[in-house]
Specification:
The longest helix is centred in the C-terminal third of the chain and has 21 residues. This protein starts with a helix and ends with a strand. The protein is elongated, with a radius of gyration of 18 Å. The protein has one domain. It has a two-stranded antiparallel ribbon with strand order 1-2. It has a two-stranded antiparallel sheet with strand order 3-6. Strands 4-5 form a two-stranded antiparallel sheet. The chain is an alpha+beta fold. It is built from five helices and six strands, in the order ααααββαββββ.
Length: about 150
């Protein structure tokens, strides 16, 4: 059975915090279940884990990565379309999401979008949209709500 975003939102408004927390935990289990090492071979544009490791190997092991490094086309050419995140100067690559993951993101973003539109409280954006926190931290979350 398929529900519209409006129907999902109406149901979600009636749920208790405990029920919503349970749903989020179940969604996380689905995401975790679909996280496999084989996904590392499926980066966008034919990029492999090995090719990313070759780029990283050119730098000292203890390199403190910066947001400027992420934007540097000499380090990461534009054809490397991979989710990169920077946390406390450490670089993290994310494998491409599974279709199941994308389906969850789409549904959750619709629910948040409907609510934020009704309440006129902000704008919802979906990846790929990077957020620069500072020069040492940059994230690319699945869903962003700007208030």
């Amino acid at each position: 059975m398929t529900y519209s975003p409006e129907q999902i939102y109406e149901v979600a408004k009636k749920l208790s915090d405990k029920q919503l927390q349970h749903i989020l935990e179940e969604m996380q289990k689905m995401v975790d279940h679909n996280s496999t090492s084989s996904k590392w071979e499926k980066f966008a544009g034919g990029i492999t884990k090995e090719s990313l490791e070759e780029i990283i190997a050119q730098f000292p092991h203890n390199k403190k990565w910066t947001f400027s490094d992420l934007q540097d086309e000499n380090i990461f050419p534009p054809d490397i379309k991979i989710k990169k995140q920077l946390i406390d100067n450490r670089l993290y690559f994310m494998a491409n999401p599974t279709p199941h993951h994308q389906k969850i993101v789409a549904r959750v973003s619709r629910i948040i979008g409907i609510s934020s539109d009704e309440k006129e409280i902000g704008e919802v954006y979906v990846a790929p949209t990077a957020i620069k926190i500072d020069e040492n931290n940059a994230l690319e979350p699945d869903i962003i709500l700007f208030l």
